[in-house]
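User: My advisor asked me to double-check a structure prediction for Kinetochore protein SPC25 before group meeting. I don't want to rely on an old file, so could you generate it fresh from this sequence?
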Amino acid sequence: MERETEQSPKTKMESLRTICDREFSIQQQKIDSLTASFPSSLNSIKSLALDTAQNHAKLAKLKANLREAEDEFVKVLVAKTRKEAKQMATRDSISAVKARVEELKRTVQVQRSRREEYGTIISRQSLALSKTEEDAEHEIEENGEIQEAISWYNRVLGFQIEGGRGVKFTFNDINIKNPKEEYSFTICHANDAYSLLDCNPNLNGIKDLINELNRTNDLFGFVRTIREKFQEAAALGLQPQSTTFDQDCSTISLSGPALSVSSNRSESSAKKNEHHIPLQD
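Assistant: Sure, here is a fresh prediction for Kinetochore protein SPC25 from the sequence you gave:
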């Protein structure tokens, strides 16, 4: 029994050795197999590394191509954006031109209407101008006749007219003894009424004559009557007095019998002319 017990570890050791040998053989085979497969694995790894390096080169090239493609895409996008902006600007310009054309059409229509209106106005003005020219020629003829009549009065009757604050009528050839002696009177027309500013010499009944003048508006008849009154006064020995009555003279128009007179302007207007001379009955 003890022997069996003593052999048992030995047997066990042998069994373990057998197992170890078998295991060693297996591991040796694995090592041999691994050693045999290592060159091929190394070659495979080298091939894989080479492929990886080639792939890295291809990847870098693809990245470069991608960057170039991106740059080209950006350029194309910028060009497209510019073209679109240019097209929009062209559309806006076309719209503005169309609007301008429509505005010009309306302006042309307005100008045509105005031209027709102005043509009508010019025609009317031409007719009015023709009539005005005819009236002016007629007025010139009348003024010539008036000037001729005044010249005749001055030459034959010794009659002169001066315009200023009023109208001064001066007569010569009144006094037979002294034909150059001057008899005069000055009247003013304002507010549709005549008033006497001066009479040299003073005449009786002059107020009634002024009232008659305002009633009849017959200035020339009034002048003839005053001349006759001056002749009567001269026949009675009434002579004009020396006076400083010297009115500012200019061209005036009376609304009574139309009368235009031109004469020189005097600087010595007497202050006493600021008031009307009292009329004598």
